[in-house]
Amino acid sequence: MDKTTNSRSDIRVRFAPSPTGYLHIGNARTALFNYLFAKKTKGTLILRIEDTDKERSKKEYEENIIDDLKWIGIQWDEGPDTGGDYGPYRQTERIETYKEFAEKLLKEKKAYYCYCTKEEIEERNRQSQKEKSGYDNKCRNLTEKEAEKHINEGRKPVLRLLVPEKNVVVHDLIRGQVEFDTSLQNDFVIMKSDGTPTYHFAVVIDDLLMKITHVIRGEDHLSNTPKHILIYEALNQPYPQFAHMSMTLGPDRSRLSKRHGATSVRAYREDGYLSEAFFNYISLLGWTTGENREIFSKDELINEFSLERCSKVNAIFDPQKLLWLNGIYIRKEKPLKIFEDSVPFIRQSGILDEVLKEGNEKIEKIIILQQERIKTLKDVPDLMGFFIKEDVEYAKEEIEKFSNEEIKNRFKNLHNEFENIEFRHEILEENVRKFCEQNSLKTSGVFHPLRLAVTGRTKGPGLFETMEVIGKERVLKRIENFISIIEKNDPESKI
């Protein structure tokens, strides 16, 4: 069918998280692959909330997932917050629909009530000598009298799908042809005894009614696919195309867990990562663009994305590489934008009011000086603090190194020098070097204690550029304070 460049295609994909916790990195990757595919094909992306797990599902988790998806940069076309023609988009609001489809399968004798308890099934498995375990399809041919007896006993049945013995073939867009023998598959539950659907049944009904054309999900769902196809076939409905992504593993190639560090998107947000860097890094896990580079804009990733180039090999999530990439994005960002994004962290540190008093011009100069050292936005308060605080703190061991008469006199002379010169970094450096030369001192013997005196640190950006931004008044005051501190220390303490 011919379509214009701007028209929407018939392709429909979905991301369907369960609101039982924060958005996991592996799930974020699934969401991104669906987003990239939808955008590349000019299709429709649906956000669906699978919240039938009443005990673990929480509204706050749903809100957090939606918020984190938006932070990453994913926009959906239909969902619980935006609406759409195929809603509602929460499974708990679709219970009656699942019941209607269950009744249809029951009437057509493609499903049946099972009254067996878990304990009874386990006992029969223990007594059976067969290799096949699990449910033994005992209630498949239950008589009306037997069913009535169970009902009178107060048993609440589940509804099971009658599984035919056949081979189910999945033509997976990433993994190729995968074949399953259903003779190894027991009749499985599609409706629980409390009247709610199982995951397998709900997901198929939702995908069917929402006209999903492509199901892009993790490899861990591949074993579920024959069940889903069997449900589609029982309903006499065509099923979507499937694409099962490789798993997201930690650097040691084990399943991503807390021992690898943060595993949720929210944790990386709270650690000060940029959404653009996160989008870039996670999007590239498990497929290749064919280009030997790692920095891509969102539009470039959309243009390059291809399910055919997705790897069957598990993707390795490396927190250190994400940190490296985040640093690159920070160095590319405008200084005042970095400050703006850092405000929550600066506020949390308690110095926001002091920083704001300095004005945008000085804030920009500070960020420019420190930009190479900022790895995440969480670093900004610490790297800005010594520029704007009235006093700085000194480590005891550093003070002890310089607590002697010679250093004290040297700082008094430097203080006099600084009082009478313009506070520009070129002039500061010229005068300090001249001071070293006139007093036969190594520059390292002056630069190091001077940096400590005016910043409270032993490392940082260029000393004289730093002094210029701190400002003459603060530098003089800090030198005076430093002299006072070393006078209080033991005069016998030498460098």
* Number of discrete helical segments: 21
How are strands sequenced across the largest beta sheet?
A: 3-4-7
Principal-axes geometry comes out as: elongated
The class by helix and strand makeup works out as mainly alpha
Mean pLDDT: 93
**Residue ranges: pLDDT <50 for 5 or more in a row?**
1-5
DSSP, total strands: 11
Largest sheet: 3 strands, antiparallel
Distance between the amino and carboxyl termini: 82 Å
The proportion of residues in beta strands is 5-15%
| Rg over CA atoms | 33 Å
Helix content: 40-55%
Give structural notes.
This protein is mainly alpha-helical. The protein contains 21 helices and eleven strands. The protein has helices at 25-40, 59-72, 95-107, 118-127, 144-152, 199-209, 225-234, 265-270, 275-283, 298-304, 319-332, 335-349, 352-358, 360-370, 380-388, 396-401, 405-419, 425-438, 443-455, 463-470, 472-488, and strands at 12-15, 44-47, 111-114, 158-161, 167-172, 176-181, 189-191, 214-218, 241-245, 248-249, 315-316. The strands form five sheets. The protein has a three-stranded antiparallel sheet with strand order 3-4-7. Helix 6 packs across helix 7 (225-234). The chain is elongated.
Which tags fit this structure?
21 helices; 3-stranded antiparallel β-sheet; two-stranded parallel ribbon; 495 residues; disordered N terminus; mainly alpha
Helix-strand layout with pairing:
Elements: E1 12-15, H1 25-40, E2 44-47, H2 59-72, H3 95-107, E3 111-114, H4 118-127, H5 144-152, E4 158-161, E5 167-172, E6 176-181, E7 189-191, H6 199-209, E8 214-218, H7 225-234, E9 241-245, E10 248-249, H8 265-270, H9 275-283, H10 298-304, E11 315-316, H11 319-332, H12 335-349, H13 352-358, H14 360-370, H15 380-388, H16 396-401, H17 405-419, H18 425-438, H19 443-455, H20 463-470, H21 472-488
Parallel strand pairs: 1-2, 8-9, 10-11
Antiparallel strand pairs: 3-4, 4-7, 5-6
